[in-house]
Amino acid sequence: MFKIKTLLKNLGPGLLFASMAIGTSHLVLSTKAGAQYGWVMAIPIILANIFKYPFFEFGVRYTNTTDKTLIEGYLNRGKGYLWFYAFITLITTFTILAALYTVTAGLFINLFKINISISLIAFVLFAFISLLLIIGRYAFMENSLKFVISILFIALIVTTILVVFKGQIHTVNDFEPPSIFNEAGILFLISLMGWMPTTVEASSWVSLWSIEKWKSEKRKPSLKESLQEFNTGYSMTGILALFFLIIGWFTLYGTNTQLSGNAVTFADQVVRLFTTHIGSWAYIFIAVSAFATMFSTCMTAHDAVTRVSLDIIALLYPKFGIQAKKHFFALGIIVLAIINFIVIAVFSANMGQLVALATFVSFVVAPIIGYMNLKNVMSADVPEPHRPKKGLQYLTYAGIAFLSFFSIYYFWVVVF
């Protein structure tokens, strides 16, 4: 009982990680994987979660043992490491938030059945979430998301059980299972694993959230407690990914239904497939749950990208300092909102292009970021007893090799 109480008290960074991850990769990509390819897509989902685990775990390990963020660790390895991470952050800044807010705006339009453009709804969401983050800061975000994630987890368990109990939908007569190993299948596989459970560069996000939690509570947990808390959140993301896949598999696989790349149409398809076997009475309940999922993802990602950007600037240009970082937080939130609103306005409602660009960048750099994180935790910064054991090191090398292989294969498919 004592361990459970301690775990609940320490819930924070791992929970925010789960909230951030259970967004596009789960609601969009996992559902689409089950709907188009069936149960077989559980294999890449499980493999991606296993092989990427060390990359995220190292963010918690490094920060807990050094009181520094992963980004500070990159600078300690050499300024080239930090500049590379800054370049990746710059690219993802223009894609990740835009993709998340586009999907969320589509769900909002679907939920309230209003005839308003994606851009306008996205603008309102940017303004509202920016205000919440500027006023509430970390403490508000953590407390509110504990409630959202708890409700979502329960709702998805109930939905999955009902869908499985109802049984798989009958396939149409002319249905032919699509191939995974053609160009379209490989590109989808790249997208799925690129954002499953989320982008590898987000490992530094957990690092920054850990420090914010310690500051707000004026207490630093032990390494064991921090890892237990993170593992809880990480396990939750993997389980929920499989739930979404099962729902897509049981309700759409074999019907030749194509999920749209338009955010509003896609949102309507997703919510309706959830109610196919349950009944129309569950439509509002599921629509609200799906919207809450994406809303919380937008909030955590917006907060994290702002903190990472300010941390990079402060390290590259020390004259800004810690105090300047605090003062610029609100400005950073607003600037990111404006930049990504412009991206949405340019790309209109074509969610597919935004997600494809974001996942491409994330997947290609994943093995490099993973290697950088390994260098951090194996450096002199971390006392030897707190460095990862051999088994975790081997899993890291396997993950780097796994992601590198698919990156090379991706280029071969696209170029040749």
UniProtKB/TrEMBL annotation:
InterPro entries assigned: NRAMP_fam
Localization per record: Membrane
Membrane topology qualifier: Multi-pass membrane protein
Protein keywords: Membrane, Transmembrane, Transmembrane helix
GO-annotated molecular function: metal ion transmembrane transporter activity
Keyword Kinase: no
Bilayer-spanning residue ranges: 40-60, 81-108, 114-135, 147-165, 185-211, 232-252, 281-301, 328-348, 354-374, 394-412
Source domain of life: Bacteria
GO cellular component, as recorded: membrane
Pfam families according to UniProt: Nramp
Protein name: Divalent metal cation transporter
The species this protein was found in: Costertonia aggregata
